[in-house]
């Protein structure tokens, strides 16, 4: 059990990559805090993990709201008494170039992906300092190499990487490690929604799979295992890195 009795908040964990991380952490003995805006799937997952291994709770929160975030952290501390790991995973993707992106859309994606990472980290750090805990930010390959029709999204994902490096330097003295995961394409509801929006979704799927040298897209469990490495003492000497879980898709760009 590599996370026995550690307490982890995972934002956006009712489904997709966050769910994969919650499942792997829970199986390794962590007490997990499942977070999303819509209760149904998150509650179901918390009930399943709570009865299976360790304990899990669901907290409804919107990471674009400071009050919601401070409420989330208070609730996690009330339930479990400590905080060891924060995973900033909640996020969304807007498929538009910068010219087509409205100012409201820019604000929305910034608030959802980047400002949320800032706010959750800001209010978690005092508690992580007590446990010498760590932060894992879920960025994207897009933050490293860009993507067509994703200027605003790329800005949020590149911003997460840069901010993580800064935080890794600032909080190393407190024993807090800060690392980033950059997934390639991962099989999640968000990605399925994107495939569904394409004119020929079967052809798009084939094209995207072929873009990955390993010939497929990734699974949420594979992201969970990467996060487990960064959350656990196995990576005790690792801070400020970006760990690509991408089937090699960023190679050869
Ligand atoms: P997803 O399937 O759409 O799941 C997103 C999760 O975040 C859900 O639990 C959603 O629940 C929650 N969420 C969204 N907005 C929220 C908010 N304002 N407050 C609280 N929770 C919120 O997405 P995903 O594909 O797993 O992506 C997760 C992260 O990985 C994102 O940051 C994304 O940029 C990144 N990523 C994904 C891929 C990929 O291929 N899937 C690749 C690279 C990076 P509610 O809607 O109920 O709130």
From TrEMBL:
<dbReference type="InterPro" id="IPR002347">
    <property type="entry name" value="SDR_fam"/>
</dbReference>
<dbReference type="InterPro" id="IPR036291">
    <property type="entry name" value="NAD(P)-bd_dom_sf"/>
</dbReference>
<protein>
    <submittedName>
        <fullName>NAD(P)-dependent dehydrogenase (Short-subunit alcohol dehydrogenase family)</fullName>
    </submittedName>
</protein>
<keyword id="KW-0560">Oxidoreductase</keyword>
<comment type="similarity">
    <text>Belongs to the short-chain dehydrogenases/reductases (SDR) family.</text>
</comment>
<dbReference type="Pfam" id="PF13561">
    <property type="entry name" value="adh_short_C2"/>
</dbReference>
């Amino acid at each position: 059990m590599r996370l026995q009795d550690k307490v982890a908040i995972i934002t956006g964990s009712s489904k997709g990559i966050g769910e994969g991380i919650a499942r792997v952490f829970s199986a390794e003995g962590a007490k997990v805090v499942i977070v999303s805006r819509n209760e149904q799937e998150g509650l179901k997952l918390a009930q399943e993990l709570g009865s299976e291994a360790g304990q899990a709770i669901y907290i409804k929160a919107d990471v674009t709201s400071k009050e919601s975030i401070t409420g989330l952290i208070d609730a996690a501390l009330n339930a479990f008494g400590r905080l060891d790991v924060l995973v900033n995973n909640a996020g969304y993707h807007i498929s538009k170039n910068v010219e087509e992106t409205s100012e409201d859309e820019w604000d929305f994606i910034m608030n959802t992906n980047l400002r949320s990472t800032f706010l959750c980290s800001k209010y978690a750090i005092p508690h992580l300092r007590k446990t010498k805990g760590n932060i894992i930010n879920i960025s994207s390959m897009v933050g490293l190499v860009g993507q067509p029709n994703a200027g605003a999204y790329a800005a949020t994902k590149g911003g997460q990487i840069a901010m993580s490096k800064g935080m890794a330097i600032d909080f190393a003295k407190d024993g807090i490690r800060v690392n980033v995961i950059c997934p390639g394409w991962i099989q999640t509801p968000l990605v399925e929604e994107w495939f569904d929006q394409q004119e020929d979704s079967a052809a798009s799927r084939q094209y995207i799979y072929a873009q990955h040298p390993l010939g497929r897209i990734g699974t949420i469990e594979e992201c969970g295992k990467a996060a487990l490495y960064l959350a656990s003492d196995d990576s005790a000497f690792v801070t400020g890195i970006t760990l690509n879980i991408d089937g090699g898709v960023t190679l050869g760009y």
